[in-house]
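Discussion board: Methods & Data

I've been asked by a reviewer to show the raw model output for two of the constructs in my manuscript, not just the figures. I'm not sure how much to include, so I'm pasting the format here to get opinions. Each protein appears as its amino acid sequence followed by a line of discrete structure tokens. Is this the kind of thing reviewers expect to see in a supplement, or should I convert it first? Here is construct A:
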Amino acid sequence: MKTLRVLVLGLVLGLPATAAVVRYPAPASEALSTDYEVWAEGQKVAVYTARVLDPPFAGKQWDFGGPYAFANFDLAGPATVRVKSSRLLRNAVVRPASAGVRVTVEDDHTLTLRLAGPCKFSLEPDGKKGPLLLFANPIETRPPKPNEPGVVWFGPGLHKPGRIDLTNGQTLYLAGGAVVKGAVVARGSNIRILGRGILDGSDYEWRKGPYGVTLGIQGSNVLVEGITIRGSSHWTIVPRGSRHVTIRGVKLCNARVQNDDGINPCNSQDVHISDCFIRSDDDCVALKGLDLRLPQPNVERVTVENCVLWCDRARIFLLGHESRAPFMRAITLRNLDIIHFSMTPFLFEPGEDMRLEDVTVENVRIHGEGQAEFIRLKPVVNQYMVKKVPGYIRNVRFRNIELTGRPGPYRVQLAGADPEHDVRGVSFENVTILGEKLGRDSARLSIGNYVHDVQFGPPSR
């Protein structure tokens, strides 16, 4: 693999004596960004493009100014990144602020960024229009070799395999600098999908890819780590009827079509999603049922943490639609940055008699742009449901949540459906909206019928 490793010696802008950067060449056929140039520790980094809303969706309400750019490189320790652009950068904003990136303006078209270590963030000269997404990854350890047994290996360059099928014990490796056009179907146990390459769906029309989703998982002990997925033609990563699935350090550069949900665990248990960056047009993370015929249909023990989330049109978290599962429970959403959203970011709407219970949302930072709604907990019946009855909501905790940004309604709505399908046991602890702590008398809060045991502040003993 033609990986370029650069060791920079000496103290540079307060960095330690030795900093390591790994960058990857782009395929010769790849049309790189003409808006941005990036150097990491003085070494040129390939800057790719991703499209926003192909026809027939282009030019609609949710179209945010055409293509955007993204770049991957690996870091061991702090580093300095230089960005040049034909666009005006003097007032560019880094989101999320928690990435800890220090910005120095060299001139109207050049910035110096000081990174404390691996991080993922959006550099925005003009809000959502044409940003640069920068993914400073940790350096890979012990990547597989192409001749190892059970390894499906794609090296640097352009590849067009279409559908890639994986089974028990196999590893799919996308090397840095690889652009692999197709979809992956992982069925079985002990499967790994790794690397710094790109799995690319952007050549396929809406809902016409080589498989129903870009990366489908049906099995146990499956790891997806480090890759970038660009331009999904439908849902992106879907564990279905699966157990012990880990999705770590994955970057999703979507928003090319509608229905490009980021990660949708369906009828799955023990799913851990961490250190990911998701930009999508549709829901970033949607937990769903879909199939009661599976041996274990529940959605249980799902954790999403340490992620950066951006949804152009729909929800950040959707829990409950298409709820063919008796239970959706033991869900943890923590240490998250929501940098852009449109519809209700936390929409919990169980139906089909499903019990949505034991959900914790904590340590979340949200950038608001004046949206109407923030949180909705409401059992419903909608067009996606087969059994036309609502569900139940039990024991949901919101703790240490901060929404900042532009003024707006940011409503919080709790409502049951009927005396049986109600909402019980909801708590809000240190939830602030534009500096105002959410309390029982907050004008933003609406508590409807069939809602019981709502608490504010620390839990009572």
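Construct B, same format:
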Amino acid sequence: MNSVELMDKKNQLKMKADAILSGAEKESRKLNDEETNQLEALKKEIADVDNEIRELNNKLNKETTKRSMEKFSLLKAINDVANNRQLDETSQKVVDAGIADMRKAGLSYSGQIVLPIEARSDIQATVANNGQEAVAEDKLNILEPLRANLVLSAAGANYMTGLVGNISIPSYSGSNVGWAGEIEAAADGAGTFDEVTLEPKRITAYIDISKQFLIQDSVSAEALIRADIVKAISNKLEETILGNAAGTNKQPAGIFNGADALDDTSYESMVDMVKTLEEANVSGEFKYIVSPAAKAALKTTKKDAGSGLFVMENGEVDGIPVLSTSACKGILLGKFDDYIIGQWGSIDLTIDPYSQATNGKVRLVVNAYFDAKPRRDESFVAKTLPA
């Protein structure tokens, strides 16, 4: 059935229900059992029709959005803004979807292009001056998922998207029990509740691209600019999280803030880091994230005097996987599903065609909103390398 037929069916059902109610009212009596059953059945049918109408409308909306996304070219949209041209209808629909995401999250935006992150699209790069299109078969996001570019996500960090307003994640210290005599009063064994609050913080980066690049019509050029936008955000986010800066109302705290230095990169030091987690009753899957310098040290530090083995072998330290990134300030061991990364809204792009004009470039200023915190501080041990 189409939406018109469904609405007709709904109206007919409501008329039947009204007839049953009005009949009883005219006779000044309550509904009998048969009428009550009929009325309940009609209410259920009306609810089912409402669900069908809702599903049909959602399907139509998705198809409309999909048709718009399939012809969207980020390069063309940037080129139009840089040359002071109005966005075409397809580009405007994509931007409107991104704006809707920002408003839902309670965030403001300032850029001329606001990109929805989760919407899916065929990549089609349209050249502004001749209208030809290069069409790719693969379905990709308007922007590639940010989590795919984060070592933290590979380590198992929890990545939350589509957030609205500030969010609080509860934690509980656990109940305590103790021994007591036969008639001795029990001690209070209640644990303590706490919460980790995440609130949106603006992260910004910029990308300079040549004006010549903007007129490219290849699918690979379109994919490259999208990937560069995500990479710029990913690098800045991971650099902050795995850094040593103190947290402020503008940025999350770096996990190495206040970290102590290792005595050395010996096998005993690595075992001691594991011991610290286990003594805090942290259990589960552990992983290391290390800097390239730390990785090199672990791979060249002998495990003992006689085995010929090194502390790090085959990408692991004592069976624990090791991930490496230049963003890391030392050696981090943790249970990473206790680390939360939150994202709000969409990607806000400001097109600046002036500041790099003498170099034949256009500057893209990227804004997005994130926060990141450990759910349990005890789940992580961060150590800087010895001086």
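Answer (T.O., handling editor elsewhere):
This is acceptable in a supplement if you add a one-line summary per construct. For B, something like: Residues 119-141 have pLDDT under 50 and may be disordered.
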